[in-house]
Amino acid sequence: MVHLRYFTDCDEAIRARVLEWVRTDEFISRIGMPDHELKHVPGAETRTGRVHNWVIFVDEQPVGLISAQIQDQPRSHSPLNRELDDPADYPLLGTVTYIDRQHRSRGYASAAKHAISEHVAAAGVQTFGCIVAGDNPQSLRSISRAGYERVHTEKVDGKPDKLYFRRRR
């Protein structure tokens, strides 16, 4: 149904389209990832983990983006650490997913989460994690279908709660 291609491997037209998504007010408020993060070479080490950025394709049409970081041990400032304190949960692959408005509610996010778990970059990963805004019912359904369980709720003043999810292998 879906296939993943690294952002850095996409042609210029696809990269420009994805950058349009990343620069929208919705993307910035929901995900907040600066566009320069997309330019990392797959597997690049950063202070927060090894980075992977995939464009989600359906029939050679880009429909979304998944940015992932693989962490070998807990990060001290992550609220998820309170719930994932078992060393057996690491390495952990955390994701943020964005589906273009025109392509939502078709199961692409769930399918992409499954594709990531089968990707060679996820070899050795014990746990998959993600964060979803509490007012995003489409994403909450997608996460549920993908087999994730809610493990933490972070209250945010003036914004929707951040809901933390995980799925163990």
Automatic annotation (TrEMBL):
<feature type="domain" description="N-acetyltransferase">
    <location>
        <begin position="2"/>
        <end position="169"/>
    </location>
</feature>
<keyword id="KW-0614">Plasmid</keyword>
<dbReference type="InterPro" id="IPR000182">
    <property type="entry name" value="GNAT_dom"/>
</dbReference>
<dbReference type="GO" id="GO:0016747">
    <property type="term" value="F:acyltransferase activity, transferring groups other than amino-acyl groups"/>
</dbReference>
<dbReference type="Pfam" id="PF13302">
    <property type="entry name" value="Acetyltransf_3"/>
</dbReference>
<protein>
    <submittedName>
        <fullName>Putative acetyltransferase</fullName>
    </submittedName>
</protein>
<dbReference type="InterPro" id="IPR016181">
    <property type="entry name" value="Acyl_CoA_acyltransferase"/>
</dbReference>
<keyword id="KW-0808">Transferase</keyword>
